[in-house]
Amino acid sequence: MRRARVAWEEQRPTWRQARPASIAAALARATSRPSGNWYVVADSRHVREDRPLGRVVAGTEVVLWRDGEGVPHAGPGSCPHLGAPLKDSAVRCGRLVCHWHGLALDGRPFAGWEPWPAHDDGVLVWVRLDHVGGEAPTEAPVVPERPSTADAVSAVYTGVGRCEPQDVVANRLDPWHGAWLHPYSFVDLEVVSVPGDEVAEEDDELVVDVSFKVAGRAVVPVTAAFTAPDPRTVVMRIVAGEGAGSVVETHATPLTGADHARPRTAVVEAVVAGSDRRGFAFARAVAPLLRPAMRASARRLWKDDLAYAERRWTLRSTGRFPG
Fold it and tell me: Would you list the DSSP string of 9-69?
């Protein structure tokens, strides 16, 4: 149950519980996990059959499109002939056709162009870049368990910050800041379980009791667990309360190369919401109308959270970070 409303400045301070060493240990455990060289690059809805999509991952140009059967393809974003930007080209009959001289690609190696593995998990599209990740590659990325897409409403927000992926991950592994930094969204946030510095991977989760503001003074109390299945992903899963099983996946994809003087990172956040309530069927029916509001909510949160991540990077890069 929600406690009586208190003024922002009168809520319980959390700085003693938000131990820098605990956050650093959680971050170290997350970043030590393998990724198989997979990077989230886009909302599945943005990779289309009628035109290509361009992205940059760790300084590498990537182009994506779907063939006539809806299968995603990915590869270098520069035409092997004279370097034309393939993101500005066209897709015709499932082939990517360069708009400079007509070199056509069907997703297979051709004329010096080599594809990269792509994976569509139904919500997000991933690309495997072995030359960037440098790990042992895997056949597929580690996709978090989610509600069935047929029974859920999903939305994807993408934002960019001047920081590194670890700064985004560290922000998500610090839930103690929630009600202080985001009073418009959260009240009564309490971290109820914190893993020790040495913990089995299956037990490595932060558990939080929190009330989400939904409209006016209305709030929804839930219990949520935070986990980090790979070095660039943090998942918040509702484990009790309204919408149990729903997830918020935060993926941090580097845009600039390693050790860049002014690094930039894309935050690709997927909200996959489900509910057993009978009325939720209506929500699924009007999902296209709900997605802009869901993205707007994420955008508001990430305005603050990217400021946190950017500040963390600034302090780290100048040797002033106290954590």
Answer: GGSPP-TTTS-HHHHHHHHHHHHTS--TTEEEEEEGGGS-SSS-EEEEETTEEEEEEE-TT
- Burial class for 124, CB neighbours closer than 10 Å (0-12, 13-18, 19+): buried
Characterize 261-297 residue by residue with b for buried, 16 or more Cβ atoms within 10 angstroms of its Cβ, and e for exposed. eebebbbbbbbbbbbeeeebeebeeeeeebbeebbeb
Contact status, residue 115 vs residue 74, Cβ threshold 8 Å: yes
- Residue 191 CB coordination number (10 Å): 19
User: For 149-186, how does the pLDDT look when each residue is reduced to its tens digit (9 = 90+)?
Assistant: 888 899 999 999 999 999 999 999 999 999 999 999 99
Residues with Cβ within 8 Å of residue 80, at least 6 apart in sequence: 103, 111, 112, 113
What the block records as the tokens of 22 is: 């605990």
| Residue 177 exposed, middle or buried by CB count within 10 Å (0-12, 13-18, 19+) | middle
Instruction: State the pTM of this model.
Output: 0.95
- What separation in angstroms does the CA of 122 have from each of 143, 157, 159, 297? 10, 15, 20, 22
Q: What is the pLDDT of residues 218-270, one digit of tens each?
A: 788 999 999 999 999 999 999 999 889 999 999 999 999 998 999 999 999 99
